[in-house]
Amino acid sequence: PRSIFFSRHGESQYNVEGKIGGDSLLSPRGMQYAKALPALITDNIGEKPLTVWTSTLKRTIQTSQYLPYTKLTWKSLDELDAGVCDAMTYEEIEQAYPDDSANRDEDKFNYRYRGGESYRDVVVRLEPVIMELERQENILIIGHQAILRCLYAYFHHLQQADLPYIKIPLHTVIKLTPKAYGCDEERYTLPI
Ligand code: F6P
Fold first, then answer.
1. Is the ipTM of this complex over 0.90?
2. Which of 120, 122, 160, 163 fits as disulfide partner to 153, beta carbons 3.0 to 4.6 Å?
3. Nearest to 178 by CA among 138, 148, 149
4. Contact indicator for 113, 84 with CB cutoff of 8 Å
5. Residue-wise pLDDT tens digits, 57-88
6. Catalytic: 171?
7. Cβ contacts of 97-101, under 8 Å, gap ≥ 24
């Protein structure tokens, strides 16, 4: 049976600084993850053919750089656009836009950043990606937290309200194997 593999990019410079969005490079730990990823993949999927999909952002492309497979970049896999809050920390957002922070806590799925997107918007823009995923064989997606939450919720049939809170840790590959009903899941975490 074919499987779909999800991984967030390795830790980025913005992750270290607690900033959201942006297009930063990987941190030294993130680079270690990128270097360890090929062995993690071969150990767990063997010789099966695999195609790697990344976003257009540097941190996912950098994370894929040592993988010896065909790669494709999708603009639709770019991280949720935080609009005017891009490149800010959550504390800075709370200071600058306290009402927005409260609204987001109230309804995180529907909250749309000023000049940016909501989780609902991301679910819509991921539709073509999901259509293509349904037709493909083994795919590894190196993505972003909000994006992978949406894809994960789709394959596990999770509720919209729960979707923005799904835990997708760094430095972990999630393997989903679709079955007649739902998906089997395994997780592989690198101690980096
Ligand atoms: O902090 C990393 C990040 O991918 C941000 O770029 C993004 O805005 C955020 O996570 C999404 O998580 P949440 O919706 O919980 O803020």
1. yes
2. 163
3. 138
4. yes
5. 999 999 999 999 999 999 999 999 999 999 99
6. no
7. none
Q: Residue with the nearest Cα to atom 8 of ligand 1?
A: 20
CA-closest candidate to residue 7, choices 31, 34, 35, 29? 34
Q: How far is CA 108 from CA 19, 53, 119, 159, in A?
A: 18, 27, 8, 13
How far does residue 160's CA lie from ligand 1's centre (Å)?
A: 17
Which pLDDT tens digit goes with each residue over 141-159?
999 999 999 999 999 999 9
Measuring from each residue's beta carbon to the nearest atom of ligand 1, which residues come in under 6 Å?
A: 20-21, 79-80, 82, 144-146, 164
DSSP label at residue 26: B
Residue with tokens 């270290």: 16
Amino acid identity at 63 = T
User: Is residue 46 over pLDDT 80?
Assistant: no
Share of the chain above pLDDT 90, in %: 93
